[in-house]
Design a protein that fits this description.
The protein has one domain. Helices cover 14% and strands 29% of the residues. The protein has two helices and four strands. The protein has a two-stranded antiparallel sheet with strand order 1-2. Strands 3-4 form a two-stranded antiparallel ribbon. The longest helix is centred in the N-terminal third of the chain and has 10 residues. The mean pLDDT is 87. InterPro entries: Fumarylacetoacetase (IPR005959), Fumarylacetoacetase-like_C (IPR011234), Fumarylacetoacetase_C_sf (IPR036663).
Length: 97
């Protein structure tokens, strides 16, 4: 999508935009392995499993996994965040015959 299309989609649902609003597009990653911005990058497209604890690894999200995203921007003397966004992966419905 172009930025224009994203703005129209966002505002068409009744969510107004105002000067100073931020819109994130894509995965924000850095140049080093510790600055990867997605599970796909962290696991090198599923070729290097991520060790979650001594008994659990993940290459991709699985049914039952719960994901929590938080974020903030910090400047000189201030910090702005958006709270938590939490969701659990549920099994896909079977395809109709």
């Amino acid at each position: 999508w172009s930025l224009k299309q994203m703005l129209v989609h966002h505002s068409s649902t009744g969510c107004n935009l105002r000067p100073g609003d931020l819109i994130g597009t894509g995965t924000i990653s850095g140049p080093t392995p510790d600055s990867c911005g997605s599970l796909l990058e962290i696991t090198w497209r599923g070729t290097k499993p991520l060790q979650l604890d001594e008994n659990t690894t993940r290459k991709f999200l699985e049914d039952g996994d719960t994901i929590k995203m938080t974020g903030f921007y910090q400047g000189d003397g201030y910090r702005v965040g958006f709270g938590e966004c939490v969701g659990t992966i549920i099994p896909a419905l079977p395809l109709p015959k």
